[in-house]
Every structure is written in structure tokens, then in C-alpha cells.
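Dear Dr. L.,

I hope this message finds you well. Following up on our conversation about the binding site, I have prepared a predicted three-dimensional model of the protein together with zinc ion. For your records, I am including the exact sequence and ligand specification that went into the calculation, followed by the C-alpha cells. Please feel free to forward this to your student if that is useful.
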Amino acid sequence: RLGTDCYRSHSEINNYIDELQRQYPNRVNVKKVGVSYEKRDLKTITITNGDGRANKKIIFVDAGMHAREWISPSVGLYVIQQLVENFSENKNLLQNFDWVVMPMINADGYEYTRADTKNRMWRKTRKPYNKCFGVDPNRNFDFKFGYAGTSAKECDDTFKGPNPFSEPETAVLRDVLKSYKGRISFYLTLHSHGAYLIYPWGYDKIDGPNKNELEDVSQAGYQAILKHSGRKYKVGNAAKLMYPAAGASDDYAYSEGARISITMELPSGGLRGFDPPPKDIKKYVEESWVGIVAMANKVVEKY
Ligand code: 0X9
Ligand code: ZN
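The resulting structure of the complex is given below.
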């Protein structure tokens, strides 16, 4: 089992899920779904209860979309560990649902922030665009592409890219999500920071058609975390509570039929918010898991 004492590299994460597949072949399926611009393997892990029932509904979790948001893949990894290695305590979450976790979307960006000669505050992917590098993957999806809160300038942190899905990483996530079309009840994307649970629409200050359901699930997460640690997440419509930003994956998954779609902005930590000290990782992932379980249980019971 990978401990929570430090932030893991992309290859450590991939090796770990490969190892789970070897150890738990009847409950775990790891797929290579694509490669990043710099040719790193992008993988998903599908976790089931091993009963062999096909076409269950899906809870989909992704992490590591923004390079500098290190606590995100840490939580993604913890979700995997809990569902696989702590299966007996989490069986109920896998009774009628399969979980698909993509623990590292922006592998190149993540590794770039880890090399200490590089830039810890890097956010984007790493494909070159003239004198600059990378696209903001969370502006690169085709739903309302470029509508608001995005930049057309190659050097900006929120550069949307020359066209939707210009980056291999977002095209892979699109294809993975499409391959589960009609089955995803809950799409959860892990970001940081600020402790927000936000839901569509995010491209503009407009509520989605099932706003009550989105609020219901988010509230379950809010309450559970409040009870666990006293932390008060902020909950609401993404564009109203944070800012409008179009071309994000939450709006994309929602527009493609995910009934519940939530961006979880994990709590701030460290000097600049993106780097809780390694000794605090455990606290962060445990708290986040409590919230995720509460949201998943709500979805399992009702949606
Ligand atoms: O701006 C983002 O992409 C997300 N915040 S972050 O600080 N992690 O970069 C928020 C995205 C919320 N969703 C939409 N606006 N659709
Ligand atoms: Zn982010």
C-alpha cells in the first residue's frame, strides 16, 4: 500500500494501479487509455465488487488536471486505495455502481512541477505553442468553448487552445467519458484549492436543469466534512460562486449526460495554497474521502 507521507510521481501512481490489477484481478481492471504529449501513459482503473454484472452505473473520478494542484492526485489515489484495499468497509459503494478513476490527467504538467529546476506553479499541459507551452485543459473541452473566463493568448495560464480537444490529454478524457455514455451517474473532478463544491453550469451564471439534485449531493459532502473536521466548504453554482469559465470538464461531462457533475476544489495549504506540507497529506485525503463517500452514498441511494 502506498503511504500518504509524500506526493507520488506519475510513474509511482501508474505502477501502483498496475500492481493492484495483479493483486485483485477479479475486482480491478487497469486500462491504458492514451498517452500524453510527452508520451506518458494515461490510465484508468475500473473498480468493481467482482460480481461480474456488466453495465452497472458508474461513478467517475478524475484528478491531476491542473499540474500544480498536487493534493488532487493524492486524493484520487486514496479513493482507489479505499475502494480496492479497504473493500470490505466500502462494499456498499460498489453494489450497484462501478467506479472508474483516472488519477492523472495532466501527467506532463505534473512532472514538470515536480522537477525542482522547473516551475512549481505550472498549471497547463506541455505542448508547445510558439514561444510558450501548454493549454489549460479545463478550458479545452468543446462545450461552450471560449464563451467566458478563457484566454486566446498562448502564454496565458487559462489559454483555451487553438481548438477544442487540441491536447491529447483532454481528447483522451473525452473518449473515455464517451465510452461510458449513458452510464455515468456521478462525475467528480478533483482540483484545488479553496474548499469549494461547485456544480454546472460553469460557463455562465446559469443553473442546470436538476440544480436541486446537484445541490443535494454537494450538501451531503458539505455536511459530512463539517462533521468530520469542522471545515466549511463553500457550495453552489460554479460560475456564481467562483467565476464563469467555459470549456471545463464538469460542464462537458454534464452536457454529455452525467446526471451529477461536481468539481471539488480541495482545501488550501502551504504558502501558495497548492502545496499542503507532506505531513498534512493524510489529514487532507481522509477528510476528502469522508466527503466523497457522503456524496457517493447520496448518489447510490437516490440517483
Ligand atoms: O478554473 C478552473 O478550472 C477551476 N478552478 S481551479 O482553481 N482548480 O483552476 C474551476 C472550474 C469550475 N468549473 C467551471 N467553471 N465550469
Ligand atoms: Zn484546477
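In brief: The beta strands are 28-35, 41-47, 57-62, 97-102, 128-129, 132-133, 184-192, 196-199, 234-237, 260-266.

With kind regards,
A. P.
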